[in-house]
Amino acid sequence: MKDGSTLRRSILAAGFVAGVVAFGAVRSAHAEVEIKFPIKVNASTERGIMTQRFGDELAKATNGRYKLTIYPGGQLYGGAKAAKAVALGNVQMTNEPNSGFTGFTKNANIIELPFGFRDEKHFQSYIRGSKSAAIRKDLDAAGFHVLALFDEGPFVIASRTKLIKEPADFKGQVIRTSGHPVVVSGLKGMGASTVKIALNEVYSAIQQGTITGVYTTFDAFINEKLYEVAPNVLMFPSYGAYFWVANKAWWNTLPEADRKLMDDLAVKLGKEYDELIWKKMDQFKAALAKGGGTLNDPTRSAGAVDRFQKAMSKTYDKLRAEFGKERVDEILN
Prior knowledge:
Mean pLDDT: 90
Distance between the termini: 91 Å
Largest sheet: 6 strands, mixed
Low-confidence stretches: 1-29
Structural class: alpha/beta
Number of helices: 15
């Protein structure tokens, strides 16, 4: 039988252990959750800044319960590799372009239909509304939770040799894309050929004559100073979206209130990005003009749009067979 002194020591020891266990449980309940977030662009880009804002606002709203770690410039993953890493659970989130998700949903392609959407507002309402349900459903089945879809901004096709004004001007052009099968189909239908190379290789490829032009977003075109080698710019009304996704299995382990907070933050920041990137059009045009470039915008003329759509009529028919007549026509109409 234990004496009083021994018994007191046993009680104190048991209390100490229980306290340590309880403290550990409290710490575990409030442990910092790291969100690994790879993106292909640099942290200084508008998308990089927006992603960091998401992390900052999330940390503030949860008293530091979440820590967002951005891996910019493709240093960890980028594009399709980032999408796959999220699906596998190797990282928690990304917000890469739709072209990186075509392995999970072919419906990611149809939104790029050239000369399809009448303007950016029409496109934004499409990706935010019920018509994007097929994309969201496919991504959910592939192991993603979709937080938001938002607009990549204006696209251009820039040429070293001549300013493209009519569909026939595409004949003989060799244009860089980063995949984009619907866009590729449209360009080939107008007589161009395409190659898939990384954006950071485009400047030298144009200089060397390996390619004659590039298809990319207007902001990327300006940031990479491609107007120095491809000063003839066509505003090309093909739209793209960034898919902001999380790993679904990881997402489902989070408290419901935190999931709602993240959804709301991503949607809010995505809408702000949409407005910002289109407000910068004048800035992009000014940078192009300062660099000695010339711009043609066929979207300002209904007649020009009609001519480009007519030139791609066979492409539209092919896409109707692939994606369904209703899906293609609801964009064109």
